[in-house]
Each structure stands twice: as C-alpha cells, then as structure tokens.
Design brief:
It is built from 19 helices and 23 strands. The strands form four sheets. Strands 13, 14, 15, 16, 17, 18, 19, 20 and 21 form a nine-stranded mixed β-sheet that branches. It has a six-stranded mixed β-sheet with strand order 6-7-8-3-9-10. Strands 2-1-4-5 form a four-stranded antiparallel β-sheet, with helices on one face. Helix 3 packs parallel to helix 5 (147-159), helix 5 (147-159) runs parallel beside helix 6 and helix 15 packs parallel to helix 18 (623-649). It has three domains: 2-249, P-loop containing nucleotide triphosphate hydrolases (Rossmann fold, 3-Layer(aba) Sandwich), CATH 3.40.50; 265-297 and 522-658, no CATH class; 310-513, no CATH class. Strand 4 and strand 5 form a beta hairpin. Helix content is 46%, strand content 21%. With 660 residues, the chain is an alpha+beta fold. The longest helix is centred in the C-terminal third of the chain and has 45 residues, at 514-558.
C-alpha cells in the first residue's frame, strides 16, 4: 500500500548573490507501508534534505509530496504541525533528547503536546520502554544513559504517538557495532509491524539489512534497488492502547510543567534573576508603605484635634500664617452665616447656623518674638520666654488632648509640652506672668497653669492656650474689643459636619482649621514623596524587565536544539510560545514571593529603627500591596518574555536541529 508518493520534486536554496542552489532535482519516489528503506549517498548529496521534506520540517519545495492523499506543499503550518505530531516519528543520530527531562518525560513529550491524560501517556510510555528493554531507566536523565540506551529512548519517543512513518537520520552513526545491530533489529521489527521506516545512512552494513536502498548523488536519484534477501520477521501483535486525544494541543498545565522542569535545571540562574527582580518588588512595597504610613500618621494627628460635631472656619489667604492672622469683622461673620444657611437649605438640611452654635476663637503667631512672652521663676530667678503661638482653646479639643491637668478658665492658661523644658516635670498649679500685644492692645496678667495639652504643633516651640471669654475680658478691660480670627460652628450630627467641611474645602474664601490645613499640606508632601519614590521603584522595575528579557533571550539561544526537537515532534508555534511565556510567568511569580518576603523582613527592620529614632514608624502595609506586587511582577516578567518566546516560536526546525 502506497504511503508516500513524490513527483517531480525540486528543492532550491537562495544564495547571497541572488542565485539558487538546487539541493534536490526531479525526485520521483514512492514508499509503502512495511518498508525498511535506506537512503544512502555522500555528504551534501541531499539525503537529509529529502528526510526533512518527508518529515514536514520544510514545506518550501516545487513538485508534489503526497502522504495519504495530502500534498505537504499545500498544507498550512498548523496542519504540518499536526502531521508531524500524528504521522511521523523522528530518530536522530545525536538522539536530541531534552536533557532536563527524565527518560519517561522525554518519551511522553509528543503525547504531552497532544494533551493526553497523564495516566494514559505514562502507561503507553512504560510499555514502549519495556518493549525496548530500558524500563528501569525511566526516571533517569539522558546524561545518565549510554549511547545505545539514549537511542532506544529516542526510538520510544518516535513510536509513542503510533505514527505511520519513522524517519531515522544516521540512527547508528555514533554507536558501536553491537549496539548498532540491536538498534537495527528494533527498526526492522518496527517496519515488519507495518510501519514505513526510512533511514539516512553512510553505512553499507546498515543499508544491507534494509528491504530497499535508494542512492542519491548531487540531489538526484541514481539508483533504487530492492534487497532480494530481505526477510520479514513475523509480525508481532501490537498491544499498545490506541486512543484519540480530545485536544491536539499543549495544555496550560503541561506548558507550566515543562517550564518548571527547565527552570529547575537552571535553578541557580533563575533564583539569582528572581532575587534581582524581588529587590525591585520589595522596594516598591516599601515605598508604598512609607507613603501610606506617612499619610496615616498625619491623618491620625489631625484626627486627634478634630471633633465630629465642630466645623472650624478661617479666612483663606495666600499662606497659612496670613490666614491665621486674618480677623473676622461682624459683617463677614454675618455673610458667612447667610452663605452657609443658604447652602444647607439647598441641601435640604434643617440645621441653621446661628449665634447659639457659632463660636469665636483667636490665634496669634508671634513671628517677631516681642508680641507675646511669659515671665517665670526658676530657683528664685525670673526668666522670660517668648511665645510662638497664642491660641484660644478650640471646641474641637476634649479630655483626650490633655497630657495632665484641666482645661483653662478665668485667670488660667494651658501650655504645650515645651513648658516642661522651662519649669520641669511638675507645672500644673504654678504661676507665670503672661504678656500679649494684640494689635496694639497690651495685656499683662498673672495666671495659673491649669494643664498641659498635647498639640499638633512641634514640641520645639512654646504655645499657650487660653479661654476665649477670659481673653476677651482682658481686652475689654483695656476699653477695646477682641476681633476673632477663627469661627467654630457646632453642628447637630456628623453628616452636617461633613457637608459643611466639604463646602468650605471647595470655597475660595474660607479654609478649615490649622490642623486640617497642616494635614492637607503634609498629605500633599507625603503624596509627592510617595510618587517620587514610586518613580524610583518603577525605574528599578524597568531595569529588572530588561534583565529578564536578556536572560530569556539567552535561554532561547541555549535551547535552540530543544526547540527544534519539540517542533519535530509536532509542537505548534503557540506551544513553543506558551512554554517560554510559562517560564516568564513562573519567574514573575517567584520574584513576587521572594519580594514579599524581603519586604516583610525590611518592614520589620525599618519599623524598629524608626521607632528607636523618631518614636513612631511612618510605615503602613496594606494587603493589596502584595496583590499589586504579584500582578506587577508577573505582568513585567510576561511582557519581558514576549519577544524571546516569539523568537523561539518562529525558529526554523531544520536550522534549530543543526545547531550544536
């Protein structure tokens, strides 16, 4: 029965000078099932070229090469892949076993590409290895086998898909005479079992055992003779289980498995590469943690000085100092009241701003140093200290803001913790003389220290807090009136508070409290710092991506022959690409895991250092940082692997198999 028919086949290769070299000229041959054919000839005569054409590794030719009624010349790449996978089995002179796979996995590789279930392909592979007498080496690597054993593995791999055609390129070229005889007997038995076996050989001994010998010289058939002395062995019953794979392509699971095998073979290189990427991932997580930690710290500090039922209002100015010193006239307070009530009415709020819930406050910043000071006694010596800030105690403060003592009333003041530097640890109950010059109104009073308040200002400056009614009374005693700098609106619920605060934030005339403005300022600064740090981390990630691309590109070059073998046994372009993309995915995943571990270790170290140096750690981990790290690491790795994987998938199988 005719299996292959070749008619008027020409194969030409273009040369650099635009001329062509004819490797095969006017080839006309027929091959039949059950034949053991030897193709002989000198080096360069065209033997291997003819084998590559029959095997579907090369489909660029003139003429017809028909296998089971299909002309290989007209088949698209996908059909050629399927043809090599199901119809042809290759046996190479140099074995071309994949070094990082076990004997069993090498034999199963063709079935792996066909997505055959693990149990079925393992059973079939072990049956073949048993038939060839090497089942005990199933778990060994090819490097642990002799030449004859490697060739038997190669034959088992060629037979695993039960192909109709076996193509053997110098199958005994690197074997001793005894092993050569064993391999020839195996190939003869394969032919006698009904398959077409075609061998390329230089050896007369090999050709003498074949049923047919075809001689090629300078790309032409010079003889085609049958061996009259050839006797077929009795055909053995084939007990191998036949099946049809449901999907004729490499599954994602199998691609990941093959990728993992290769990564494990080069584990030192891959671990070092993953560690390099992990440093960038860890840096990114720490940068995000620092930014969020700083923001959280500022927010927490600001929240300590806010009240859910109080809305602070100041006049907006070009800078914070001017804003704090801007006085409210009664007309401006009335205008503010009307504006806010109109806004509340439009939002269907029943709350109304009135004199009952509108409180006044006063803030003075002593930039010159001579507008406010205190006199205090230490060891019977009177000393003077300039005040940086004078505040009237805002209604936003509560008992949680007190370090010790009580809120101040008439003839009383509170200080921030800087007062401890002047009077020691026990300050509550002591007296000081306070001097304040408010817009030319001089106030001098001897007052008691009622308490120490934890302020949002820095501990390195001295601030005093007085009751607004007491300060106003002191000014009235000078026949003057106190003009407020701050307005506080006491609301009925948090919804009203948030509504008014949001309105004030969008206003071009008003702003919130000093604490809120400081929080906004520091938040903006921390966001800027976070962005800058993220950019630095991003640059390191780009460098990591280039490193991954370089390593994978080199890996493609190192594994050229492996790619050729996979294509010879039917791997599609997509299959090759999926294997290398899977490696990229695993590298990205490994990098992310290592990076997360490094970030956790670094987070602990930095937390200890910051707490020791600053008393707090401006670091805050979010669970989604780890998700971002994993996704970003995998994405970068897979994007970096696209070009190398594409290059690998487009490699010419013939050229790949020639590569040493």
């Amino acid at each position: 029965m005719t299996k292959i028919e070749i008619k008027n086949l020409f194969k030409k290769y273009p040369l650099d000078n635009k001329e062509e070299f004819t490797a095969l000229s006017n080839i006309n041959l027929s091959f039949h099932q059950g034949e053991l054919v030897a193709i002989v000839g000198e080096s360069g005569s065209g033997k291997s070229t003819l084998m590559n054409l029959i095997g579907g590794l090369d489909s660029k030719f003139e003429g017809d090469l028909i296998v089971d009624g299909l002309n290989l010349r007209d088949l698209p790449d996908k059909q050629l892949d399927k043809y090599r996978k199901n119809k042809v089995g290759f046996v190479f002179q140099s074995f071309n076993l994949i070094s990082h796979l076990s004997v069993l996995d090498n034999v199963c590789s063709a079935l792996t590409l066909s997505n055959v279930p693990e149990k079925i392909k393992t059973k079939k592979a072990l049956e073949l290895l048993t038939k060839l007498g090497i089942e005990k080496y199933a778990k060994r690597k090819p490097t642990q086998l002799s030449g004859g054993q490697k060739q038997r593995v190669a034959i088992a791999r060629a037979l695993i898909n039960d192909p109709d055609i076996i193509l053997a390129d110098e199958p005994t070229g690197s074997l001793d005479s005894k092993t050569t005889q064993q391999i020839l007997e195996i190939l003869k038995q394969i032919a006698d079992d009904g398959k077409l076996v075609i061998m390329v050989t230089h050896s007369e001994k090999v050709s003498s055992v074949c049923s047919r010998v075809i001689e090629i010289f300078d790309g032409q058939i010079v003889s085609d003779t049958k061996n009259k002395n050839y006797k077929k062995n009795r055909k053995k019953k084939n007990n191998n289980e036949h099946f049809k794979a449901e999907k004729q392509h490499l599954s994602l699971k199998s691609a990941l498995k093959l990728a993992f095998h290769n990564m494990w073979t080069n584990k030192i290189k891959n671990i070092l590469m993953a560690f390099g990427v992990a440093i960038s991932i860890s840096s990114m997580i720490l940068m995000l943690s620092f930014g969020s930690g700083l923001t959280d710290y500022v927010t927490n500090v600001a929240s300590d000085y806010t009240n859910p039922l109080v809305v602070p209002v100041s006049k907006k100015s070009d800078n914070m100092i001017s804003s704090l010193s801007s006085y409210w006239t009664e007309e401006e307070i009335s205008s503010l009241t009307e504006e806010l009530n109109s806004f509340l009415s439009k939002n269907n709020e029943e709350f109304t701003v009135s004199d009952e819930n509108l409180k006044r406050g006063f803030t003075m910043i002593n930039l010159t140093g001579n507008l406010a000071s205190i006199d205090y006694s230490v060891d019977n010596e009177i000393k003077t200290q300039s005040l940086f800030c004078l505040y009237t105690t805002p209604p936003t403060y509560n008992e949680t803001n007190l370090i010790e003592g009580n809120f101040s009333g008439e003839n009383e003041v509170m200080f921030n913790s800087y007062i401890y530097n002047l009077l020691g640890d026990e300050v509550v109950g002591k007296q000081v003389d306070i001097y304040v010059n408010i817009a030319g109104i001089e106030v001098k009073k001897t007052v008691d220290i009622s308490g120490v308040v934890n302020t949002s200002t820095f501990d390195g400056i001295l601030c005093v807090y007085v009751d607004y009614d007491f300060l106003e009374k002191c000014v009235i005693e000078q026949n003057k009136s106190l003009t407020p700098t701050d307005i506080y609106i006491i609301t009925g619920n948090e919804n009203q508070t948030n509504l008014l605060k949001n309105y004030i934030k969008t206003s071009d005339k008003y702003s919130g409290s000093m604490e809120e403005r400081l929080a906004d300022m520091f938040s903006e600064m921390s966001n800027t710092i976070s962005i800058a740090l993220a950019v630095i981390a991003g640059i390191s990630l780009i460098v990591s991506a280039i490193m991954i691309l370089t390593v994978l590109y080199m890996s493609v070059s190192e594994r050229t022959k492996e790619i050729g073998v996979l294509k010879a046994i039917g791997a599609r372009r997509r299959d090759i690409k999926n294997i290398f993309v899977s490696e990229s995915f695993l590298i990205g995943l490994l990098s992310a895991v290592v990076g997360i571990c490094l970030s956790l270790i670094s987070f602990g170290i930095f937390s200890i250092l910051f707490n020791a140096l600053l008393g707090f750690a401006p670091l805050s981990l979010r669970w989604y940082y780890f998700v971002i790290a994993i996704l970003l690491s995998v994405l970068i790795s897979m994007l970096s692997g696209l070009y190398p994987s594409s290059k690998a998938s487009k490699m010419d199988p013939v050229e790949s198999l020639r590569r040493e």
